[in-house]
Amino acid sequence: MSDKSSEKVIYETIRKVARITLNNGELNLFDKEQVVGFRDALLKVKNDTKIRALLIQANGRAFSAGFNLKQMTNEKSTLQIFRDVGKEFIRLLNHMTIPTICLVHNYAIGIACLVPFACDFRFVLKDVAFCLPEINYSFMFPTHGGMTITPKICRSDSDAKYILMTGEHIKLELADKMGLVTKIFETKEEMEKEGLEFATTLSKKNPPTMSMIKACFDKCKASTLEEGMIIEAEAEEINTSNKAEREVGIKKFIEKYQLK
To answer: What is the pTM of this model?
Structure first.
């Protein structure tokens, strides 16, 4: 077994669960290597048909303090990594057809805030602090999906605007009220243990149904009851078809209803 302790992004599979661990120092800054490594790990998850759930966590003192700004020079190739590869991994996370769980401790700033925001579930420690700080800098804007993802997971538009317009650290009490938190834990060990157990439980659910629930969730949420029932009936018909027809049907269903 190879030693992964020096890798900035650790990728593991535990039965049908993929686990990605940020491992880049105490603050897990997204430097060029970690940006590419995280994107590549997500591509592994996407392309492995045996994986049924994804768990994301971090070593170090904080989940991540965001992009390594010292590396963000005017060099075109460097900026392209932070801009384009960063956007790519947010898209990959947002479009996963399997359930995604993110375990967050301490800071999750900037791009590192959008990682848990793009996941289905967010398990956190009591010291959690989410932050999109771009409003505090004259040369920044909430990119990489920040303007799109944030309103979707907040309980109200004003909550999303508060995050985007103040740039404040959103600590536990407020984060919980805003709907950013799925479950709260006292210790990192407890969070990681229950996070893996939860991912394992989800990995045992019916894959076709899981993928179609994820694909049409946002569409159904924005639909009338009658429109939603039509989508549900379409998914039910696919699930009761034979294996060959089901595989084709699921792919078309995801392409049709997954919001881009």
So the answer is: 0.92
